[in-house]
Amino acid sequence: MGQRYGLEIRAATGADAAGLAELLAAAGRPIDPHRLAERLESLRQEGGSALIALAWGPPSGLVAFHRHRVLDADLAVARIDALLVGPEERRRGIGRLLLKAASQAARVAGCGTLHMDVGPDQADLHAFCAATGFTPGATVFERPLRKRS
């Protein structure tokens, strides 16, 4: 995608899975690197995108989104599934750069709106969303489709 301030933003590949697994584990979302590589490929095949920020070493940040159609909008919606920046990399503009790259990729994919679910306990993310042009929307509820064992 591009470079800015020595930071490269590009599509994630299976080769990035080990570094991304570390980033996800630091955010409390551990995943096996092999499973992550498979999920990155599935996301790509299904029209989604995962972009990473790299300076040197492992990825500094990640944004992943998928596009889908909704009944009440002419254009598809891009829903951000993950927006993460490593703990030591925060407050350096990496999240904004990832959001900008995701917005551009979503526009190119034919989307008209970008959505991001933010939990009530994520005050920092609420502030980030407000500072980057998001407006509050409806609350999202979720329900598992299979019984837990």
From TrEMBL:
The keyword Acyltransferase applies. It comes from the Bacteria. Residues 7-149 form the N-acetyltransferase domain. PROSITE patterns: GNAT. GO terms for molecular function: acyltransferase activity, transferring groups other than amino-acyl groups. The keyword Acyltransferase applies. InterPro entries: Acyl_CoA_acyltransferase (IPR016181), Bact_Acetyltransf (IPR050832), GNAT_dom (IPR000182). Keywords: Acyltransferase, Transferase. Pfam families: Acetyltransf_1 (PF00583). This is N-acetyltransferase domain-containing protein. It comes from Methylobacterium dankookense.
